[in-house]
Amino acid sequence: MTVEQETRPGTTARSRTLTVSEVVQETKDSVSIAFEVPDEIVDDFKHLPGQFITLKIPSDQTGHVARCYSLSSSPHVDDFRLEIGVKRTDGGYASNWLCDNVSVGMELTVLTPSGKFTAKSLDVDMLFFAGGSGITPVLSLVKSALVSGGGNVVLFYANRDADSIMYERQLQQIRSEFPERFTLVGWLESENGIPTSEAVEKIIRDHKGAEIFTCGPAPFMDLVERSATACGVDHSDVHREVFQSLAGDPFDTATLRRLSDDEGVATATVYLNGECITTEWPRNTPLLDVLLSRGHNAPYSCREGACSACVCKLIEGDVDMVQNNILVDDDIEDGERLACQALPLTDAVTVSFDDL
């Protein structure tokens, strides 16, 4: 079998250039960065609280690197002001570059928001567990829930010490504005050690029925999930955000592999942006790459099976996902698949990006 590569222009509809409008030193090793969104592209950056954006960060060695950063701003509060929180990491490049180099007026290329760390409803009681820089998407959700929702909000926020608390001023302001509905529980490892299952389980039991969200270091989120299970909380009521570095480059244009006839192709029927698309699908090419290479504006971000921006619903046929680091069993049972990782297992496959 022979395989030749055919490179076609990929869509750049989701890539935009934004200008930094504010930089705030949150702690000695973290900053918050705000971006100005011009009126003509405001609609491109409509998002849900808890989602993230992907930044194209300059690099002398590779030209650029791509990294995802959660939005701490709220679409219900901040009038399309996009703000991210960035914390310096040992041995890391992208976050350290931003902490050292970003300044007001700087332009950066950004992919539009995506992500599944979101709330189905803002009108329920919510219990948040944030560790360190994991506060960034949690802050977005907290602000939206308090301003646009009707439930009570509890935040358990763990940090190394008092000097490492990101967004402390904002959190204190929120507490003063919503004294009846917002409870802030701080935990400092310098005083109390690492959070314990006893402490986490007590908070969960004290707020039985609340929907649980957690973001932070993996051991911290594992602790929250174990504690929730011990308290009888259904797995579907616990939402976990995962930070992952990207190995590939989501800013690259897609490449479509043209296969010889002996390899064969499947037929894909895709419902996307209100259209029904029928196209040939080479069997060793992810569905997302096929769509982008043929000029269709499919949603995506990481292109590595880690963010769920490209999730679609399987209606007919079957696919294999090369990688899946984000969808849980319940998602897969509901028919959700990652287009960036989907390869056809049947001759005909039907999916929908619109019916989720």
Descriptive notes:
- The protein has helices at residues 94-101, 135-148, 168-177, 189-192, 197-206, 218-230, 287-293, 329-333; strands spanning 3-7, 15-27, 30-36, 52-59, 63-70, 82-87, 107-114, 126-131, 153-159, 182-188, 211-215, 238-240, 255-259, 265-272, 275-282, 311-316, 319-321, 336-338, 342-344, 348-352.
- The protein has 356 residues and is α/β, with parallel strands linked by helices.
- The chain folds into three domains: 15-114, Translation factors (Elongation Factor Tu (Ef-tu), domain 3); 126-240, Rossmann fold (3-Layer(aba) Sandwich); 254-352, Roll (Ubiquitin-like (UB roll)).
- Strand 14 (265-272) and strand 15 (275-282) form a beta hairpin.
- It starts with a strand and ends with a strand.
- The relative contact order is 0.14.
- Residues 1-13 have low confidence and may be disordered.
Draw up the topology in text:
Elements: E1 3-7, E2 15-27, E3 30-36, E4 52-59, E5 63-70, E6 82-87, H1 94-101, E7 107-114, E8 126-131, H2 135-148, E9 153-159, H3 168-177, E10 182-188, H4 189-192, H5 197-206, E11 211-215, H6 218-230, E12 238-240, E13 255-259, E14 265-272, E15 275-282, H7 287-293, E16 311-316, E17 319-321, H8 329-333, E18 336-338, E19 342-344, E20 348-352
Parallel strand pairs: 8-9, 8-11, 9-10, 11-12, 14-20
Antiparallel strand pairs: 1-13, 2-3, 2-7, 3-6, 4-5, 4-7, 14-15, 16-18, 16-20, 17-19
Helix pairs in contact: 5-6
